[in-house]
Amino acid sequence: MKLQPLGKRLLVRRKPEMTKTPGGIIIPDTLTEKPMEGMIVAIGDEVDKVKVGYRVLFRKFAGVEIADNEEGMFLVMVQDDILGIIT
To answer: Which domains does the chain have, with CATH numbers?
Structure first.
């Protein structure tokens, strides 16, 4: 996806949802909860403390979802929505 966030915004690729348990049981879409974890793929010019490639934990209802048919689901969010960096 070719999108450059502006200001203090980030483009985050959301971790894929789990649709099947390790035992093979399929979980319906209505019961799955969207993960609050993702990878930063682009940052705006005013962003500090995080960089492209960081795995981050963010707020449950953070950002605006953007769907890309080829690469999956992305979120555009402000830097303040990041709760922490996963190491």
So the answer is: 9-16+26-86 (2.30.33.40)
